[in-house]
Amino acid sequence: MRxxxxxxxxxxxxxxxxxxxxxxxxxxxxxxxxxxxxxCCTYVVHRVNESAKNNFYLLDSGQKLATVRVKDxxxxxxILCEGHVGIFHELFFGLEPDLGxxxxxxxxxxxxxxxxxxxxxxxxxxxxxxxxDIAKSGYSIxxxxxxxxxxxxxxxxxxxxxxxxxxxRDGETxxxxxxxxxxxxxxxxxxxxxxGLKIVRFDVLDNRDLRK
Length: 212
Fold this sequence. Notes:
Number of strands: 6
Radius of gyration: 33 Å
Protein name: Conjugative transposon protein TraK
Largest sheet: 4 strands, antiparallel
Order of helices and strands: HEEHHHHEEEE
Organism: Flagellimonas profundi
Strand content: 25-35%
Transmembrane segments: 26-45
Keywords: Membrane, Transmembrane, Transmembrane helix
Shape: elongated
């Protein structure tokens, strides 16, 4: 009788031991799976972040057209900065004899890409009736870019824009030199400024008529 009780107790003990071992294995497997899942998620997030760093928006007149991949980060920054400077100048200095068109381009787009130095220049030209004269006289001004030089050796990045304004009036074509300078600073990307850059301390160095 005592042997039967002993054997029964021994089996119960063995069953408890086996259950504990199965529980321990289950815990180890669960922890291993969780660790593996964590490592996989970390790897995926890292790959996504690295991929996102190489994605840059292709812009046209301030509007996002597509996403392009550029592996060279320095080249990507160069494209972004040159694009920002070029688009700003096209919006600000490329004019048509239409006050509504001018205001949409400058007030609705260009001034979001520049600090108060751009606003001061715009207000000064408005006070001088510059835009009204263009609208009344039927002038059409097209911007021609020669070069954009950006110095990345110090921040904010200093730039120089060199180009010309092609002026069509009364069936004749005239040219005006356009050389500007300023600095580029990083800012938050917004619907009105997708590049996440802003021109500061903007200044026009030369805007003289060119001799034929």
